[in-house]
């Protein structure tokens, strides 16, 4: 039996060195190669305050902040998108109900714990999530009770099938409220508090303008965490985006839904979808200017472009931190009969273990890319002798053609090896010679470390 | 950058020891743990002869047989099922056309080379596949030319995007014909010749009877190869089944199609589907008895049961030899609203990298199983609070319940660890409390060795 050999090999030094430390979120020791993705300053939206607090949701976490609070100083518009998994965690159910009940109006805060997902926890879990929201509300003075219940978005990430230590969490919400602040250090610490197996906090901010108020500067900030799931956790993709632009709830939801489709729903670490995935967007209008009240204005279109681009940059950070990832791979499928076909092909390539292990091995294996293109489900428009595959280097040098209209090229192996040495790579699949629809997906490779992380024993 | 660390770690001894030797098919050194799956005798169908011959399709292969020939002594019925990949290899196209042209009648042989897949090779590749079939035909004397062209099924497996060394292959077909024989050693050598990255040859045989001829003994033999794809190969699932029962082409095709759906189409190594996958079934009627000419007879039903069971046992051998596999996992989904729903859920669990790495880590991670159940695409009938998950040991001891109607059980970790130590395991997912449809899938785990094998540089 090979089992003993295998068991031993997993404990050997090279893997041990690569293993992430799971004990606590926000470990703080960012790997040197990831430091460039952690901002040292930012431009944050007016009227939002944030904080991070230590609870110790996991008993083993005695040091690191695991409670995050993001609040608007005034009631604001809120929207969210959720996992499509049939097994939805309690905070997903509670937040969805809350936004529906309020019509996305009068939202005050997002409260997040890491360390426990509050998933598959039955009725008790629902009650815990409701309590987290209500206790958060209580600290925003002067809010008149409008009979619509909680005003807080609730998120949880961490171990599945365990109840939250709810009293510990509730007892720390006053501290979370009293330490709210708006400077860069507050935002970065808050972004760190939502992490689980992430190796670096994921935070972005930017300024923008809208056509109807060209002299008004708006700001947007967002934090996210990923990526992949780590046992016995079901780690989760969470995102919290805030803007001081004035946007009504209805257009806010449609802006977010469209932006997520091309960003957070266009990334893949391992193809698994967690029970807790949630991305929320708050807009408090604190910067003034003309409100966006419907989907027909030029402001709406401009806002869509800004939001989609911003959400895409945030989502890419999740891929950068994919469990065990050594590569950041853009998969671009062009000249497709429809956007749906293009996205299905891109998604199938992004999820193929054979493509992902070849990328880990720095191997110009166009055969596996072609093969995944050919078995994408629900796609009828793939025609072998019209399909071309190239590697596109991200340094601006010319693409390396691997397959042209179904015919293999004689590949310059030295050039291929050079391209594959880089961390970043684009795989370009043209489904025809005619102009058509395009979809982009972002993914990472499958490494030994992925197996080590996800095959590890519970501790 | 972590790249150098990673690169070094891949060259360390524990992996090097586990790496399969890719240089040639039929290496012959079966790992000790797999020896029990290689038969030392068999009962083979009357009127079939087989052989294996060395060609050296890969220039580096100077020793191992890589050409297999399976022939019926008389013209027989033939049927086949093929990959659904859009990029179909030349032998797939040529064989499909041949069977259609002949209506599955008058088939004489199956000719297979390993070492080169003849895939994505354009018009020249088609011509090569046609030549392989025609040259094979030529050696079956006395065959009158009926104007319908070749009578041979052609299969190839190995590197993609390269032309076959067709002259070398054609020059060895006379030798393949002259060494045809029907004893166990012939069958085993032939099963070995179709292998690529397989660690053991996969051959089964059995006897059976049919209701209308209770005193006639029929025999069936089959060989197959898998599993997963190895760079720069696109290894392929091939299967060749022969029986001396008398079955007309139409019922033969429907028997095979139904059997494959519950056997070869219910296994997953890595979720990738190759360009060359082909399973062929020949029936020469040499054992006599009443012919099966339609789908309505009791003989047909009995034959279906025998064939499905036989094909399932063959398909399971492919999973036993999954690249890097340390576990053999049966996924049984019961009490479903439909067979399709059950199969989609089973397939989704079987393909989840998180489930597969947890199994490698011997981890009772029901959360990942539940999560995969919840994101199975196209399934509307999953209801969280009616879903139960158990581990079923294969030693006959009682099941270990992990989740009952959506509520987590307090898991006996010692018992779970004991169950997960075994090579074989069944995961049982009950989608409701009501009797319903059932689907079974077989899969293996994802190990470091899988990544090593598939991330390896081309040599």
UniProtKB/TrEMBL annotation, chains A, B:
Active site feature: 236
GO molecular function: L-glutamate N-acetyltransferase activity; L-glutamate N-acetyltransferase activity, acting on acetyl-L-ornithine as donor
Annotated source species: Mytilinidion resinicola
The protein, known as: Arginine biosynthesis bifunctional protein ArgJ, mitochondrial
Site entry: Involved in the stabilization of negative charge on the oxyanion by the formation of the oxyanion hole: 157-158
Localization per record: Mitochondrion matrix
GO CC terms: mitochondrial matrix
Record EC number: 2.3.1.35, 2.3.1.1
NCBIfam families cross-referenced by the UniProt entry: ArgJ, PRK05388.1
